[in-house]
């Protein structure tokens, strides 16, 4: 999995929306997209470090 920039993802979602939305709908969609990206980023496994502070094989 790769890291997703929350703000860029939310902006891309808004730009890809085909129908006209009210300001409240746009804000709601933006917040939901940011939450989705944040949830995705939490699920990315952290690399294991060895005792020297570098990635373990």
Rg over C-alpha atoms, rounded to the nearest angstrom: 17 Å
| Overall pLDDT | 88
Strand content is under 5%
> Judging from the principal axes of the Cα atoms, what is the shape?
rod-shaped
Taking the alpha carbons of the first and last residues, their distance comes to 18 Å
- Residue runs with pLDDT of under 50 for 5 or more positions: none
How many helices in DSSP terms?
Answer: 2
Main beta sheet: strand number and arrangement?
none
**What is the structural class?**
mainly alpha
What is the β-strand count? Answer: 0
Order of helices and strands: HH
Q: How helix-rich are the residues, as a percent range?
A: 40-55%
Q: Could you state the oligomeric state of the chains shown?
A: single chain
Properties at a glance:
57 residues; mainly alpha
